[in-house]
What we know:
The chain is mostly helical. Helix content is 97%, strand content 0%. The protein has one helix and no strands. It has one helix at 5-150. It is rod-shaped, with a radius of gyration of 64 Å. The N and C termini lie far apart (222 Å).
Amino acid sequence: MEFDFDELDQAEERAAKIAEDKLKQDRELAEQAEKAAAKVAEDKLKQELKQEKQLAEQAEKVAAKAAEDKLKQEKQLAEQAEKVAAKAAEDKLKQEKKLAEQAEKAAGAKAAEDKLKQEKQMAEQAEKAAAAKVAKDKLKQEKQLAEQAEK
């Protein structure tokens, strides 16, 4: 039996070709797997970034709403304080006006009372003066009568 080297060479070439094709296929599969893994990692990173961005936007909206609510509340409190201050000022003004009116009435009553006292004193003085005049005139008349009686 004669050994066919050509057939052996062809078989080796086919085996090398098969091994080379398999190696090439394995490399392509490894590259595809690497690309797929990189794509998955990239997609996952994009998703995480998107979620972080959404969370940041939501947090910003919540903070803006809280600031707006706080501003509204402060504005309402300021308006209430302003109303209370205005009411207090109005009440104080009314009270001062009432006190001024009472003081005015009291001053008027005091002036009338003083005038009445003065008029009473003047009437008493006039009465005393009149009584003294009458007594003086009576005394003078009695003196004259006594003088005439002596004569």
